[in-house]
Write a structure and sequence with these properties.
binds zinc ion, 17% strand, 242 residues, alpha/beta, 9 strands, 8 helices, globular, binds nicotinamide-adenine-dinucleotide
């Protein structure tokens, strides 16, 4: 079983999606905030936005959809979770679940990095390639590397940046599965959108969970129209009878 998640999984937690009705891009322009060029031009502005998002996410809690997926990590052998989300709520749900019902960190493949990780803007020799930093809010913006004193940047993949090839490899391997469920993603952003095709070509049974129609809806074996936080717990209940 492999599940691909997008921003919709965290919508019920209060984390805004990008493209939906209340989406972040309704009020902000991606090219001014989420590109290396934007950071080079105005690191303070970019960090103010990320600091605001980190504060918002810190105040959110994982929801029933995250909890079911955390539980499935133990229920299905070789379960893999590919996520486009950077909010860390899957991991938080796993940490809060009982130890015997938890998703191992090896089972989570983060395509777009994490908002809770940072790295040196110009890689320095003293710091690790990236590290966890849960400071909320930052006392000084833009924050700096404690070793070289130069700027640090959020550990997320920005528009115009490539994905980590190792992460793409692991996700591609995971897409070769028996059952592939895509949840809460508009299925527009490649290569994430392509994992569904890989799963289908490999003979997987494909499912989409989303309250809206997406480009994937017509192509899956089963489209479940509704919010992740109600559909996933219902699926979990039905599986309990098997
Ligand atoms: P998106 O905003 O493009 O699409 C969200 C999808 O979720 C839509 O199809 C919408 O219909 C659906 N949705 C809304 N509420 C839902 C619910 N309750 N249950 C299930 N589905 C629901 O997001 P995306 O496809 O993930 O791609 C956008 C990119 O934005 C990703 O690359 C991701 O890195 C980034 N992002 C991450 C977060 C986060 O970490 N939580 C939030 C916003 C954006
Ligand atoms: Zn440094």
């Amino acid at each position: 079983m492999t599940v691909l998640t997008g921003a919709g999984v965290s919508a019920a937690s209060g984390v805004p999606t990008f493209r939906g009705a209340d989406g972040l891009w309704k009020n902000f322009r991606p090219e001014t905030l989420a590109t290396p060029q934007a950071f080079a031009r105005d690191p303070r502005l970019v960090w103010e936005w990320y600091d605001w998002r980190r504060q918002k996410i810190a105040a959110c809690e994982s929801n029933a959809a995250h909890h079911v997926l955390a539980k499935w990590g133990a229920r299905f052998p070789n379960f893999k979770l590919i996520t486009q989300n950077v909010d860390g709520l899957h991991e938080r749900a796993a940490a809060s679940a009982k130890a015997n019902a938890s998703l191992s960190s090896a089972a989570v493949i983060r395509l777009h990095g994490s908002i809770w990780e940072v790295l040196c803007w110009r890689p320095c020799a003293m710091s690790p390639p990236r590290w966890r930093d849960e400071t909320v809010p930052y006392r000084e913006i833009p924050p700096r590397c404690m070793h070289c004193g130069d700027l640090i940047r959020p550990g997320v993949v920005w528009f115009g940046e490539g994905l980590d090839p190792d992460v793409v490899y692991r996700a591609t391997q995971a897409a070769d599965c028996d059952v592939f469920i895509t949840v809460g993603t508009s299925a527009l952003v490649y290569p994430a959108a392509g994992f569904l095709d890989i799963a289908r070509r490999g003979g997987a049974f494909t499912v989409e969970i989303n309250p809206d129609l997406t480009p994937a809806t017509a192509t899956v074996d089963l489209a479940l129209r509704g919010p992740a936080e109600t559909i996933l717990p219902e699926l979990d209940r039905q599986l309990a009878h098997l």
